[in-house]
Amino acid sequence: MRAGRLKTKRYKTGGGRIGRLFLLILGIMLGAGAAIFWQGGNIPLPAGGVSLPPTPTLTPQQSGREEKTVTLPGHTWYALQVGAFGSAPDARAAAESFRGRGAAGYVLEMDGYRVLAAAYETRADAQAVQTQLREQHGVDTLIVEITQPELSLRLTGQQAQLTALSDAWDAIEKLAGHLNGLSQQMDRRAVNADSALSALASEKETLNALNARLLSLFGETGHPAVRHVRALLSDLAAALPTGEAQSSVRLGAGIKYAQLLCVCRMAAYAAAIAEE
Questions:
Q1: What are the tens digits of pLDDT across the range 254-267?
Q2: For the residues of 186-213, what is the DSSP string, one character each?
Q3: Closest CA to 266 of 179, 159, 138
Q4: Of the residues 88, 158, 220, 276, which has the maximum number of CB atoms within 10 A of its CB?
Q5: Residue 95 in contact with residue 105, Cβ under 8 Å?
Q6: Residues 37, 100: Cα–Cα separation, whole Å
Q7: Confidence band for 12, pLDDT divided at 50, 70 and 90
Q8: Which residues pair with 25 in a beta bridge?
Q9: What is the pTM of this model?
Q10: pLDDT, tens digit, for every residue of 54-112?
Q11: How far is CA 218 from the centre of its chain?
């Protein structure tokens, strides 16, 4: 199959302004509870559809806090779609079938319910697997672009809070790449199940430690933006395969699922912040 004939679908997570650099002002302060102020209008957040009203941001001199700029890099992943359905039950049934064959079986709700098999860092990698699936297994796929916009966030708050939030974002960003590499190693049989599970256990420990750190600094009822990061850390830790007995095929599918969860949730989170 020629590359020019491969099918591709663009997934624009954040509307027409995806790909630009956005500068948002956030002020993180402790008091009766941690609060984050977004300057310039209501910004919808993924956690429960929460949006904040316009409010001024205190400068470091006014608040006695520090200031830090954090950049969430933009990234486009190339996912292989193995099916599209009009109902969630049909999509879940198909997803489970594909998991038994080593695919992620991740259900993405977008124009219906799309079942994704895996995500790749480059289009060339996705196209190579797409061709292999068609020629060797008779499986037709569609390439879906999942784009995370680049964001520049200027934060004001206590140093420990700013560092913890920055570290959490950084860990989530890196996790998708780590899982992608581990998944490809599993597919090539370059790593065995025990080694893969050991690497996953280390990732899970890091995610849980970061979550506990945010909880200690922001509290259980912190701002929705922080709660969303904590929820994502928790969901990713739960999605990582554990040391329970399972086949290499199922383990590989679990790694691909966790990677897609990371990719799709971060793309939605960044796009929601970027859209005013």
A1: 999 999 999 999 99
A2: HHTT-S-HHHHHHHHHHHHHHHHHHHHH
A3: 179
A4: 158
A5: yes
A6: 46
A7: very low
A8: 154
A9: 0.78
A10: 333 434 444 457 888 888 889 999 999 999 999 999 999 999 999 999 999 999 998 89
A11: 22
Amino acid in position 123: R
The answer to whether 121 and 180 have CB atoms below 8 angstroms apart is: yes
How are beta strands 106-109 and 75-85 bridged, if at all? unpaired
Please give the share of the chain, as a percent, with pLDDT higher than 90: 54
Here the tokens at position 183 are 């998944």
Return the amino acid letter for 137.
H
pLDDT at residue number 64: 53
CA distance 85 to 88: 7
CA separation for the pair 95, 91 (Å, rounded): 6
From 140, 165, 143, select the one nearest 154 (Cα to Cα). 165
Token pair 């001024």: residue = 56
Find tokens 């200027």 and name the residue: 154
- Amino acid (1-letter code) at residue 144: V
What separation in angstroms does the CA of 56 have from each of 27, 37, 96, 152? 9, 7, 49, 18
Taking the C-alpha atoms of residue 32 and residue 76, their distance in angstroms, rounded to an integer, is 39
Instruction: Return the SS3 of 136.
Output: helix
Those residues whose C-beta lies under 8 Å from the C-beta of residue 27, and which sit 6 or more positions away, are 35, 36, 37, 57, 58, 63, 65, 155, 156, 157
H or E segment and range at residue 275 = none
Cα(35)–Cα(156) distance, integer angstroms: 11
